[in-house]
Design a protein that fits this description.
This protein is an all-alpha fold. It is globular. Bound molecules: fe (ii) ion (2 copies). One fe (ii) ion binds next to helix 9.
Length: 287
């Protein structure tokens, strides 16, 4: 594989000189630098629905803190990889731009995503980043960004997934217990809203028409992917309390109220598709 084609480049351990330049450059753009946060719960049990889960209620305080820590790190590690994908996406769209203004826009986006990555990196731990590499959603996202054409990327990544990101980060900000992280997430929401809105402006309906079958196929995948959220919570419970039998797992899923959560998520995605061109065609094919 050609190194320049890799989205998930390694984080350097011994890059003091380079890191200093990156930090100084982000600062020069007005970006705040966050201190590394090592302790304290970042989201309450209610954020993950764990307050309704009986095995969680019966766990010791220490176990509960561990489960919450794993869930929080899972969320942050997913964001770490998404922001990294965002830098690659902006760079690819930059090269594919058709006007000076379009190229300027994607150049600024790349800097936004690098800023988001630096912010998230202050809260996420290395082990969580490592295990999120195996996440099938992250892997699919990387494949799409690397291999799909410009029209598909403008639709799937910029309009739909950046739009999804707005809701996702807004929800995380709303429930966040750490004031620094909360303010940071609100700043990210503002940037993602600009990214999403400009996707709607740049989207070329006729170019998209030629790729509709592929777009529909990818949307089918993303509709199913947003339904897997609670899996991470169940896996955090298992990692801490040990293996759960199928019946126990079913009980946890029921207590987490997965149906409602899946319904809400599907509705957000549907509204994003409805606000973009060819919604009748795409939703019709998905029904
Ligand atoms: Fe971002
Ligand atoms: Fe973005």
């Amino acid at each position: 594989m050609v190194v320049a084609d890799m989205i998930d480049l390694p984080d350097l351990e011994e890059a003091k000189g380079l890191q200093k330049i990156v930090v100084a450059s982000l600062r020069a753009r007005g970006g705040k630098m966050l201190p590394r946060v090592e302790s304290g719960a970042l989201w309450p049990m209610t954020h993950f629905g764990l307050d309704r889960v009986s095995v969680f209620q019966q766990a010791t305080g220490e176990q509960q803190a561990q489960i919450l820590g794993i869930c929080a790190q899972g969320v942050l590690a997913e964001s770490y990889h998404i922001e990294k994908c965002g830098m690659y996406f902006a760079a690819k769209m930059n090269l594919l731009s058709e006007s000076t203004e379009e190229r300027m826009l994607y150049s600024v986006f790349a800097a936004d995503e690098a800023t988001h990555l630096s912010w998230i990196s202050a809260f996420v731990v290395k082990e969580a980043v490592e295990s999120a590499r195996e996440d099938s959603f992250i892997q699919q996202l990387q494949q799409v960004i690397q291999h799909e054409n410009k029209a598909i990327l403008a639709y799937v990544i910029q309009v739909v997934l950046e739009g999804w990101g707005i809701q996702h980060y807004r929800q995380l900000a709303k429930n966040c217990l750490n004031p620094i992280l909360q303010a940071t997430l609100i700043d990210i929401v503002k940037d993602e809203a600009r990214h999403h809105a400009s996707g709607l402006v740049l989207l070329q309906e006729d170019a998209l028409q030629a790729s509709l079958p592929r777009v529909t196929e990818l949307m089918k995948y993303f509709f199913s992917a947003v339904q897997t959220g609670p899996l991470m919570v169940v896996s955090a419970v298992e990692k801490t309390l040990g293996h759960l039998s199928l019946t126990q797992k079913e009980k946890v899923f029921a207590e987490l109220d997965c149906r409602r959560q899946i319904g809400d998520r599907t509705q957000i995605l549907r509204e994003l598709v409805q606000a973009a061109p060819w919604s009748g065609h795409i939703l019709g094919a998905l029904e």
